[in-house]
Amino acid sequence: MFAQSTATAFGDVYSNFKELSSNTVDDTDYEIKTTVTDSDVIVIAIHGGKIEKGTTELASALSFHNNYNYYSFIGKKTKDNSTLHVTSVKFDEPTALKMVSKSKTTLSIHGCSGLEEFTYIGGLDSELASKIKESLIKYDFTVLDTPKRLAGESPKNIVNKNISSKGVQLEISRGLRTQFLSSDSDKLKNYVLAISEAVNSTKVEVPLKSNTESGLFIENSKLLAPFLVFTEYLGLKDVIKRLKTTFQ
């Protein structure tokens, strides 16, 4: 009932990025968006845009809020965007591989089916996965036991190809991702806070950063969390609005 990836029912159309790029048009069928910072954390959404809706928005919001590195492969086709899905163990787009290889902490954002609102957590970084689970539950999100096929435990999975050889893969239900894109929902804001708190709790002596233009205060220490002041929806509403306009 719950455990089903959003990949096509009969498997991927393309077995790697070279095949995909040879049969599609860059900037028409898909595009690649990146942000490079001085962080050792990267958030990736390799099935973004119209492939697994809401994953690009979450990855972008996490990056924006924390100044993390960011990568998203964004499906832009007018239809059949599922054909752009290349499974994580075969996703070898060069920019993504290079950025992930330089990171110590990698978060890979995915979408799975299910109208209920829940998250599966996988990847080989079990310590961080546990922290994220605790934080999501604290923020009133549902975390279910992850099915084996969505566990992200293969060393070939791009999420585990970083410096630490381990990352965290988040599979987010369609129901929850729909709420992320809703203009009258706080779900995206709270999800970003939950993940940020878990990831940043592992960091030591990271100063508080601020974005004076947006009024956004970025949390880099869980000890500072109770004292942070946020502008409306952490400035994420504008991010969502811009992204949704791009994907329409």
Q: Mind explaining what this structure looks like?
A:
The protein is α/β, with parallel strands linked by helices and 248 residues long. It is 29% helix and 19% strand. The chain has 7 helices and 9 strands, in the order αββαβαββαββααββα. It has a 7-stranded mixed sheet with strand order 1-3-2-4-7-5-6, with helices on both faces. A two-stranded antiparallel ribbon has the order 8-9. Helix 2 crosses helix 6, helix 2 (55-66) packs antiparallel against helix 7 and helix 4 packs across helix 6. The two termini are 30 Å apart. The relative contact order is 0.17.
Secondary structure topology:
Layout (H helix, E strand, L loop, with lengths): L16 H6 L7 E6 L5 E9 L5 H12 L2 E7 L18 H8 L3 E8 L6 E4 L3 H13 L4 E2 L23 E6 H7 L6 H14 L8 E3 L4 E3 L17 H12 L1
Parallel strand pairs: 2-3, 2-4, 4-7, 5-6
Antiparallel strand pairs: 1-3, 5-7, 8-9
Helix pairs in contact: 2-6, 2-7, 4-6
